[in-house]
Specification:
heterodimer, A: about 260 residues, Rossmann fold, six-stranded mixed β-sheet, four-stranded antiparallel β-sheet, 10 strands, B: Arc Repressor Mutant, subunit A, 4 strands, transport (chain A)
Chain lengths: ~260, ~475
């Protein structure tokens, strides 16, 4: 059995008292490419954010490489959704990539040449070295996503959490990113990737988590990614549970 | 021009106070703007009032440390409260800010009115400040040979603190402003940075409140950063530029306050007000003339693009006339450069006809031809060019169309080549309907560079004729 990279236990998150994910539980072995799959509103982004303590949890325990998250902070890299940032921000692509190194640079200290060189190298790895000094709003969607990926690369983490890196990118970028993910896997990294395109799941990921508020199934793709499980994830909303939480919410708000 | 009394002892200190206040505010304002929180700066700078008034009522003195502390506490409370109302009460962010700061500001005003019987602090002074009184209240600063106004000392310290904060934590401010999630995940707590920034905004607002007044701090927090944002797309440059703009506006504002009213026969007006007007003017100038995003440069670029496209269209039309004349005219295609091809074409090809074909007016076509002539792309037809072939088809004394020069022909061939390659590409790869083909290609041909042309050529298997059966010229292969 491989060592466990990420272990989530009994994780529940609520927005405005309405549970978004509920009793989520899974283990992810090290060195795997993991796809998180589920319908809209299934709580995929919420799950990643809750793992990283970016939003408060109602309950639950997260362990990264056998330690609580805040002790393994430096081993986790995050690629947020592309829409989550303001692309009119006055920085160029190189600046964005360098941000991945800030943790290693530390408080107050300035960016030095070796950091910029590392950032350039990462941009070259994702194939946009020539765009280093372009303002980020002038990059295409695919190039913006590549910039984010380059930033993740320079973080040199062991566990990557990626929020839809393949959403709305051109075919060439998708192929390049997948190639890069496979390379990272070959280097012993673990990547947990939210993915929306069911068709390509078996090609890209060797491990999946099927999520719809709670974990419907998790395990090796060939075992778990079955029609039956997909039906459970996408078709059968947990209507009773939904109704119960809705009733709970109404009662608490006194409506 | 400088026909007024400039007294360094008075005006110098006023300008110094204004500049310090402007720089201190705009340093922080840049980050407020980028966080889309400019209004929070506004809210905080207003909401410090009850803190000031409360401390004032308790201590009864205007320069006490307590007053400062009280104001800062209430200022930070504004940020916390509006955050709380926004998240817990599910009220819109702007609305929750509005609720908090108007309530606090109003209660501050009430407290001042109550206090006004006992001490000297009036609402007008709160709103507009009293920068003109800066030089009156001086402190002896150890190590300096002259006395320095108290306001200038305080503002210097605040400016220094803000500059140190932005300088030392530039990287942290940048990452937490751009991507708060990554900042927090990287160990730079976005929340911590947020509240330190808010505290400094509150401190700055309180310190500036005395000199430029409560409302006008807002101008310095928002307008210079907004101006700088129009002028650059690098954060560092933006911060430096906004400080410069703020400082120059402060200085210019004071000069304007003295000079401008005298043009209309009035005495000088309030400096703080004029400083804000000066930042507004700076913003307008940037809005109109900023090289990249400015209104006028954008307009000029658009017009220039339209103009070059028209010139290209005229050029290619001349080329097409020449081409069809070669085929229809029955004459064997003679050496390039002979003009008879144009005159032998079937229609009366005059300027009005060109204008109609290109859906524009005659004047534009005439000017485009003049422009092409000036660039050596075409030349006017001289008598000997026309020769025996010129017949009645020339029509009603209208000036005859110019002919292509060698350079012009090559350029036209390049554009026509792009056009026909695009048509070929659109038919074979994109399946565009026949009748829409020409219009689409007509647009694309103007934005096709050499590299793209080569790619088109490659992807359409280097055709020699386009979908309409016309040859695709290649200037490189005569």
């Amino acid at each position: 059995m491989d060592p466990i990279a990420l272990s989530v236990d009994d994780l529940t998150v609520a927005y405005h008292r309405k549970p978004v994910i509920w009793d989520v539980e899974f283990d992810i072995p090290q060195g795997k490419l993991v796809g998180i799959v589920g319908p809209n509103g299934a709580g995929k982004s919420t799950l990643l954010k809750a793992i990283m303590d970016l939003i408060p949890r109602a309950s639950g325990r997260v362990e990264v490489f056998g330690k609580p998250y805040h002790q393994s902070l430096h081993r986790v890299g995050y690629v947020p959704q592309r829409e989550s940032v303001d692309w009119d921000f006055p920085v160029d692509a190189l600046d964005v990539v360098t941000m991945g190194l800030y943790r290693r640079v530390g408080w107050c200290l300035p960016i030095r040449k070796k950091h910029r060189d590392a950032a350039r190298e990462a941009l070259a790895r994702v194939g946009i070295a020539d765009l280093a000094h372009r303002q980020i709003s002038q990059l295409s969607g695919g190039q913006q996503q590549r910039t984010f990926l380059a930033r993740a690369l320079v973080q040199d983490a062991d566990l990557y959490l990626m929020d839809e890196p393949l959403a709305a990118v051109d075919a060439a970028t998708e192929a390049a990113i997948v190639e890069l993910l496979k390379q990272m896997q070959a280097d012993g990294k673990t990547a947990v990737v939210i993915h929306h395109d069911l068709q390509s799941v078996p090609d890209y990921f060797d491990h999946v988590v099927l999520l719809n508020m709670r974990v419907v199934a998790t395990g090796r793709t060939q075992d778990v990614f079955t029609n039956e499980n997909l039906q459970k994830t996408y078709g059968g909303r947990l209507t009773l549970l939904d109704e119960a939480t809705e009733a709970m919410r109404r009662r608490e708000r006194g409506i | 021009m400088m026909g007024f009394d400039w007294n360094w002892q008075l005006d110098g200190w006023i300008v110094a106070a204004g500049m310090l206040c402007a720089v201190a505010s705009s340093l922080l304002g840049c980050f407020l703007l980028l966080r889309r929180m400019s209004l929070l700066g506004d809210a905080i700078s207003h909401a410090v009032l009850p803190g000031l008034a409360g401390a004032f009522l308790i201590s009864g003195s205007r320069s006490s440390v307590w007053m400062f502390v009280g104001a800062v506490i209430v200022g930070v409370l504004t940020a916390l409260l509006s955050d709380f109302i926004h998240h817990r009460g599910q009220v819109d962010e702007g609305a929750s800010m509005g609720v908090v700061f108007t309530t606090l500001f109003a209660s501050g005003l009430l407290m001042i009115v109550v206090a006004a019987d006992r001490v000297d602090l009036d609402p007008g002074c709160v709103l507009y400040g009293a920068i003109e009184q800066t030089p009156l209240d001086k402190w002896e600063v150890p190590g300096l040979p002259f006395a320095v106004p108290r306001v200038v000392v305080v503002l210097s310290i605040v400016t220094l603190v803000n500059a140190l904060f932005v300088g030392l934590f530039f990287k942290e401010l940048k990452i937490s402003t751009f991507d708060a999630a990554l900042a927090t995940a990287s160990g730079f707590s976005a929340n911590l940075i947020h509240y330190v920034l808010m505290t400094l905004v509150a401190i700055t607002a309180v310190a500036c409140f005395e000199s430029v007044g409560n409302i006008l701090v807002v101008a310095m927090l928002i307008v210079p950063p907004a101006t700088a944002y129009l002028l650059t797309n690098r954060l560092r440059t933006m911060v430096i530029l906004s400080c410069l703009i703020a400082a120059v506006s402060a200085w210019g504002g004071h000069v304007m306050a003295i000079v401008v009213p005298s043009w209309f026969g009035f005495r000088s007006t309030t400096t703080a007000g004029m400083m804000s007007v000066a930042t507004g003017v700076a913003f307008m100038v940037a809005f109109l003339f900023a090289p990249q995003q400015g209104f006028l440069p954008r307009w000029v670029r658009q017009q220039w693009l339209r103009w070059t496209i028209l010139a290209d269209d005229v050029l290619t039309l001349l080329y097409r006339i020449e081409e069809s004349a070669r085929e229809v005219g029955g004459h064997p295609a003679t050496a390039p450069g002979s003009a008879f091809a144009v005159t032998a074409a079937p229609l009366a090809q005059t300027v009005p006809w060109v204008a109609e074909t290109l859906l524009t007016n005659r004047l534009a076509v005439k000017w485009a031809m003049r422009y092409l002539t000036w660039r050596g792309r075409v030349r006017p037809v001289s008598a000997k060019d026309g020769g025996a072939d010129s017949g009645p088809a020339e029509g009603g004394g209208e000036a005859r169309l110019p002919v292509l020069t060698e350079v012009g022909r090559r350029e036209a061939e390049t554009i026509v080549r792009s056009h026909r390659l695009w048509e070929q590409y659109l038919v074979t790869k994109v399946d565009v309907a026949e009748e829409r083909l020409h219009a689409k290609a007509d647009r694309l041909e103007h934005f096709t560079d050499r590299e793209m042309q080569d790619q088109l050529d490659e992807q359409t298997d280097s055709p020699s004729i386009d979908p309409h059966g016309r040859p695709i010229p290649n200037p490189d292969q005569p």
